[in-house]
Design brief:
The complex is a heterodimer of chains A (235) and B (133).
Chain A: H1 2-6, H2 17-44, H3 50-78, H4 91-103, E1 112-115, H5 125-142, E2 151-159, E3 162-169, H6 199-209, E4 214-218, E5 224-231
Parallel strand pairs in A: 1-2
Antiparallel strand pairs in A: 2-3, 3-5, 4-5
Helix pairs in contact in A: 2-3, 4-5, 5-6
Chain B: E1 2-3, E2 6-7, E3 10-15, H1 19-30, E4 35-41, H2 44-54, E5 58-61, H3 70-80, E6 85-90, H4 99-104, E7 105-110, H5 115-127
Parallel strand pairs in B: 3-4, 3-5, 5-6, 6-7
Antiparallel strand pairs in B: 1-2
Helix pairs in contact in B: 1-5, 2-3
The chains are: A alpha+beta (235), B alpha/beta (133).
Chain lengths: 235, 133
């Protein structure tokens, strides 16, 4: 685990937080796999009564929740890759893939998504997808008790060598809307989509490891805006 | 894969140090009609032996196994069964492997991936058979 811990930038002391996070992610990942295995065993069983079928569905939801926590911690330990100028990704595509991944989970997830396709950025697509995954999850968690699906809008424009992206939403606004990405800020929302509660830290680490910056605040009309910059694709 | 008019199932070796996970992963893979679990192993020596003996098409490999560090484990499997494709199924990031071991890995599936998705990925790897190998 030393190489993984060393890659976590500042947590590299022996036995430090990075290594602990990696171990925890590994253990939770195994737990998710075991739960998922038993869910399949139950799904194959014949003659289950309604209660047992309900229990099998609940095991599925619990598995999703454990899986999210494990993935969050792994994202946190790996979100420090150096930028690669040769990489080119489309933010709109990464946003769509992140939403698709969320909708394949068992927990309720509805969003109304509007996109004005921003320029390409020099960030690996997988990293960009993870960034949007955590931003979208925060919106769903913020609207967990709301009666209607929240709406999100992605816009972006090139500013010199950077692309400035703005993801705004109309979900309930949390306390301290301008401090969501400060170290130690409480996770937005509630419910299973909060995961391990490290989404803001993952976003900050991905953005900052690419030389960008991420902030939040209220826009006119009361929408919450997350504004972040990423290097523009040179290609 | 079609041979003599019948479907040839992809032969799979399942390696994990947890007996429970070996059983559950094997069971999930066996539910996919394109796959046949031909052996399992729970430590590094067993992995290398089973890879050489069972001649699997795909080795589903946990990276944290007793007896060898991850890089050594991956390279040992690659040496024991050069025709097999290695699908790492681990809670560890592939980025933690050295370049040589990373190059030997055909696919990395996070351990949090649903087992039916793992089965599909393994079946896809089996279909990517190269007769020249």
């Amino acid at each position: 685990l030393s190489r993984l811990a060393a890659a976590t930038d500042g947590w590299s002391e022996p036995g430090g937080t990075g290594a602990s996070m990696a171990v925890l992610a590994h253990q939770l990942g195994e737990t998710a796999a075991i739960l998922d295995g038993y869910r399949h065993v139950l799904a194959d069983a014949q003659g289950l009564d309604a209660d047992a079928q309900h229990a099998a569905r609940m095991i599925g939801l619990a598995t999703d929740r454990v899986r999210r926590c494990a993935d969050d911690l792994m994202h946190l330990t790996t979100a420090v890759r150096p930028p690669d100028e040769a990489v080119r990704s489309q933010p709109a595509k990464a946003l769509a893939r992140a939403y698709e991944a969320m909708r394949s989970d068992g927990d309720r997830c509805e969003l109304v998504v509007e996109v004005e396709p921003p320029p390409a950025v020099s960030v690996e697509e997988r990293e960009l997808e993870r960034l949007f995954l955590h931003l979208l999850r925060a919106v769903v968690a913020a609207a967990w008790d709301a009666e209607r699906a929240p709406g999100v809008r992605l816009q972006g424009a090139r500013v010199g060598s950077l692309v400035q992206l703005v993801l705004s939403d109309d979900a309930p606004v949390p306390p301290g809307p301008d401090r969501l990405f400060e170290p130690g800020a409480a996770p937005r929302g509630r419910g299973p989509w909060v995961g391990a509660g490290v989404g803001a830290a993952v976003c900050r680490r991905i953005v900052e490891s690419h030389g960008g910056r991420i902030d939040s605040g209220l826009a006119v009309g009361g929408r919450l805006e997350v504004t972040f910059t990423l290097p523009a694709s040179a290609r | 894969m079609i041979a003599d008019g019948a479907m040839r199932r992809t032969r799979v070796l399942v390696c994990d140090d947890s007996p429970e996970l070996r059983e559950l992963v094997s069971g999930a893979l066996a539910r996919n009609p394109a796959l046949e679990v031909v052996a399992t192993a729970g430590d590094a020596a067993g992995v290398a032996r089973a890879a050489a003996d069972s001649r699997p098409d795909v080795v589903v490999l946990d990276l944290l196994m007793p007896g060898a560090p991850p890089d050594v484990l991956v390279l040992a499997v690659a040496a024991s069964a050069p025709r097999s494709r290695i699908a790492v199924f681990s809670g560890r990031a592939t980025e933690t492997l050295g370049a040589a071991a990373r190059a030997a890995v055909a696919a990395h599936v996070d351990k949090t991936t649903p087992l039916d998705v793992l089965a599909r990925r393994v079946a896809e790897l089996g279909e990517r058979d190269d007769p020249s190998l």
